[in-house]
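Batch manifest, entry 17 of 40.
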Amino acid sequence: MKNKHLLCWNRSKNSLDKIPYNKVLDLKLLYGVDQQIKKIEENTKNFLEGLAFNHGLLWGVRGSGKSSIIRGILKNYAYKYDKFETLEINSEDLSDLPSIFLNYKFNKKIIIFIDDLSFEQNDRRYIQFKSFLEGSFSNSKYNFLVYVTSNRRHLMKRDMIDNERSSAISQDEGIEEKVSLSDRFGLWVSFHNLSKDDFIMIVKNYFDHYKLQFNNDIKDLAIKWIFARGNRTGRSAYQFFKDYCAKNKIKIS
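Output type: structure tokens
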């Protein structure tokens, strides 16, 4: 099959490296996010089939599976379609996007994935990125879809917006400038904190997938893990599962 790799921007070499789709978490292992997966799958399929689509912003608590969902969906579609390429770019290299589109030729549709994006105080890159999303001259000839993950709904700290409120000549105009970037994403997909029961169900889902016995003793260990870590996320659940398997000499692929 074709299209088994993604393109990853390598700033140090100023090149697009081909990276195989490996070590991508199976979407079946992601419990409790079926609605989020469905929304992104439908939007991606619309893009690939030439229908109306929106750029997507996945925001919410860290470790909730945002990047795993994007990579899993794009891997699955890479085996179904030979009409697109995936370009993954580090959030720190965001300013390189215009030059990438100026200096490289793409013969297929492009899905751009930027993981863990946020902007700090006085970071003006968000203005450049907003222009890119609107279809600047350098990329307007290409058909592209952008997916971004972030812990922040507006991609920037709340105090950045508050600073605009206190210092802008026109407060409404200053705040609008700050939040207008996230408004460029027509698809917002949110991820929130898990309940204790949801956390246990995620752990159990891993045990079921690998055909391992799950019992009350393991449940108690998982609850202790929650208190030790101080969070309840899908990432933490997977870390508990790997820790349990390692301690019990259980090999998982």
